[in-house]
Design a protein that fits this description.
457 residues, alpha/beta, Lyase, Ornithine Decarboxylase, Chain A, domain 1, TIM Barrel, 9-stranded mixed β-sheet, 12 helices, 22 strands, globular
Length: 457
């Protein structure tokens, strides 16, 4: 049996080519496609657990007595089973909507390890969070301070809160996923004085307990520098809180956004490298400010789930297109596309792919992998070299789709969303089933019109 391990920076640790076909955690993708259909997301569960432990252990080793929580960012991808795995691995959960909190509740995820984010939490979402006794609510606006304080008072509790800050850091990433410069919807600006005013308002409410601050500078970042600068500014702000308001933080959440590899040449930051760099900054800056370090927490999402999942597509059609420069491009149409991976269309995210069901017999040619939706922009991979003999019925595998693939999936063109299949040691189980046309039709209603009183007053 011939076995070739794939690039570990892009593929999950248990992905390899065995006898000319892709095998993930002992499961041949041809068998998975026959059993579960395509497209499908394949989760290498052992790889997922390994990544959870790597971030958790490196946080603990580098910050020791000041180690806080690894809050997994649920927005990357969450399901009841994923929440149960996270709970069993003793890490926290970062939710930002009532729906994500509902998943945590369904999994009986420990409330004391949950923080709730969101720039516009509704009253019902805040009530649900306080009712479940989530450990922390991250405050994002002056309106929210008053809202959370009032609802906490109604529940008769003192709610632990963090203040989300914008430290004015320009992270080198796409504008759509940069979140810490001044002109964004998130958080309170340090530079403008809004952050200090927010802290004053939190302190004035007996139903709120100020616990510290939080920042998230963006996503898919490959350099420690922006994280280090953000950390310096956050600790400088904590010094200002101590000196001007006599407020001490017991937790500093440094966010997430650590990049992963999607294509050859991407150079992700190892957990050990990132945690060591941040621990050095925290130690130096806390000494400069004259106080001991608060608990340090982080929020990786993509860096945990992203490389653990692979999408399997079936090829439906192919065609040759003559370009204006005289070159040819081969279009390869698959049975998914922008409904299961909107990122290429949303902000130009790049991916790679391989022929997953057999050994190619021809040379590679300039190709474009496209989806089945009625949009010219329904492109999975804009430029890639793939075998010229790829034909209908072949399988393509696209790695590193765990983050935001299924999470951001839609029903565009009324296409049902794919399942998530977890594989371990040659076994497979469904953790999120495939949607059906019946699911899509279940929301349609035929209702008699009702008069709405008061219209026009």
């Amino acid at each position: 049996m011939m076995s070739t391990k794939l690039n570990p920076d892009i593929w999950s640790e248990n992905s390899r080519i065995v006898n000319d076909a892709l095998v993930i955690a002992g499961c041949d993708v041809r068998d998975l496609a026959r059993e579960f259909g395509t497209p499908l997301f394949v989760l290498d569960e052992t790889d997922l657990v390994t990544r959870i432990r790597s971030w958790r252990n490196n946080l603990a080793e580098n910050f020791q007595s000041h180690s806080g929580n690894v809050y997994y960012a649920a927005k990357a991808f969450i399901s009841v089973e994923i929440a149960k795995i996270l709970a069993s691995e003793n890490v926290g959960l970062d939710v930002c909507t009532g729906g994500e909190l509902a998943v945590a509740r369904a999994a009986n995820f420990p409330a004391e390890r949950i923080e709730m984010h969101g720039n516009n939490k509704s009253e019902s979402e805040i009530r649900a969070a306080i009712d479940y006794r989530v450990r922390t609510i991250v405050l994002d606006s002056l309106h929210e301070i008053e809202r959370v304080a009032r609802i906490a008072e109604e529940f008769g509790v003192v709610q632990r809160v963090l203040i989300r800050l914008t430290p004015g850091v320009e992270a080198h990433t796409h504008e759509a996923i940069a979140t810490a410069h001044e002109d964004v919807k998130f958080g309170f600006s340090i530079a403008s004085g809004a952050a200090l005013e927010a802290a004053r308002k939190v302190r004035a409410h007996p139903s709120l307990k100020f616990a510290g601050v939080h920042a998230h500078i963006g996503s898919q970042i490959f350099d420690t520098g922006p994280f280090e600068l953000s950390t310096e500014r956050l600790i400088e702000f904590l010094g200002k809180l101590k000196n001007e308001l006599d407020l001490l933080a017991d937790e500093l959440v440094l966010g997430g956004g650590y990049g992963i590899a999607y294509v050859d040449g991407d150079d992700p930051i190892a957990p050990a490298t990132m945690m060591k760099a941040l621990s050095m900054v925290v130690d130096k800056e806390c000494k400069r400010q004259g106080f001991s370090s608060p608990k340090i927490s982080i929020e990786p999402g993509r860096a945990i789930i992203g490389p653990s999942m692979t999408t399997i597509y079936e090829v439906g059609t192919t065609k040759e297109v003559r370009l204006e420069n005289g070159d040819n491009r081969r279009y390869i149409s698959v049975d998914g596309g922008m409904s299961d991976n909107i990122r290429p269309g949303l902000y130009g995210a790049r991916y790679m792919a391989i022929l997953a069901n057999r050994n190619p017999e021809t040379r590679n040619v300039k190709s474009r992998v496209v989806g089945k939706h009625c949009e010219t922009g329904d492109i999975v991979i804009s430029e890639i070299e793939l075998p010229s003999d790829i034909a209908p019925g072949d399988l393509l595998a696209v790695p590193a789709t765990g983050a935001y693939g299924r999470s951001m999936a839609s029903n565009y063109n009324h296409v049902p969303r794919p399942p998530v299949i977890s594989v371990v040691n040659g076994t497979a189980r469904t953790i999120l089933r495939r949607e059906t046309e019946s699911d899509l039709l279940a929301l349609d209603v035929v209702e008699k019109a009702r008069k709405i009183e008061g219209v026009g007053r």
